[in-house]
Amino acid sequence: MSYVGVNIGALTVKVVALRDDVRNATVLAHQGRPLEILKEVLARPEFADAEYFGVSGQLGHISEVAAVQRALREVDGTFDAGASLGGESFLVYLLMDGRITNVVSHNKCAAGSGEFFVQQIGRMGLGMEEAIQRSFSGKVVPLASRCSVHCKSDITHKLNRNEATPEDILHTLHDSMSNKVIALLEKGARQLKRVLLIGGVTRNDAMVAALRAKLPATEFVVRTESPWFEAWGTALLVRDSPTERSLKIAAQPSLGRLPPLHLYGERVQMIAAPPRQAPPAGPLVLGVDAGSTTTKAILLDPSTQGV
To answer: Which residues have CB under 8 Å from 179's CB, separation 6+?
Structure first.
């Protein structure tokens, strides 16, 4: 019998087929068309005779945590954590005796994700392999990596003004991504001697090298199954309990349409700006709110409460 596990991520579709002791796996970028790419993959000879299916990740009915836990049972050795390096987000699975005890995710902007890295190398006209190799010859430069909007603008300005080379930008992006992973690992509040890396970003040698350089005391392990680890775990779950004879895809969210805003023009009240006043003789209070994409500031007159 053939059991197929599918994992649909933000950037790629991963498919694994188990047939006796034989494994077939593939990872393909879906460019926002996961179901089309999945259909093409399943039409290949190595997947065409599949009898049972399971889907995890986006549009899936199987939990990714359950898939990762199942795959961990097949891995030799002891790990203190597993770091999932995906295109949309980074996750850390804290482990105790081979079992997941906690899942830690970051709440930072997408500037620290694999997908953002792909977008930026596309803007520089580079392919993935070239970008990875050129990253090794760069150095870390200051970048506004907290927010993707600011980071993108910062990259553009530094390149246009020759304040940084493409190699520097690539190296700094890897440095920023690795910092976010390490911040998640540190939430485990204990020493992590061995960490298993999984997810598509494990194919990025520069990213793996950055992690190893920052935490030399920790052994970061990349296995053959790492890029398609979740799909492998999904296939193992299907083999353990084969029930679905066809793909079970969750309903895709859809966006509705609202009437155009110009139909409601009569409901809009335009409030004129107050007339400018001469500044008071006394002191003013400055209030500043620095957000992720905008900065707001006001001057308040304490004596009149005027703004």
So the answer is: 112, 214
pLDDT at residue 232, as a whole number? 98
- Give the pLDDT confidence score for residue 185 in this predicted structure: 93
Which residue carries 């500031």 as its tokens? 297
pTM: 0.79
* Four-way CATH pick for 1-75+226-251: 3.30.360.10, 3.40.50.1820, 3.40.605.10, 3.30.420.40: 3.30.420.40
pLDDT at 113: 64
Q: Which residue ranges make up each domain of the chain? A: 1-75+226-251, 110-222
The CATH class for the domain spanning 110-222 reads: alpha beta
Q: How many CA atoms lie within 13 A of 238 on its CB side?
A: 33
- Report the chain (307 residues): mean pLDDT per 10 consecutive residues: 93 94 94 92 92 93 96 94 87 94 75 75 93 96 79 89 95 92 88 93 94 96 97 98 92 82 91 80 89 82 84
Question: How far is residue 171's CA from residue 160's CA, in Å, rounded to a whole number?
Answer: 18
Contact predicate 216/25, CB 8 Å: no
Answer whether 1-75+226-251 and 110-222 agree in fold: yes
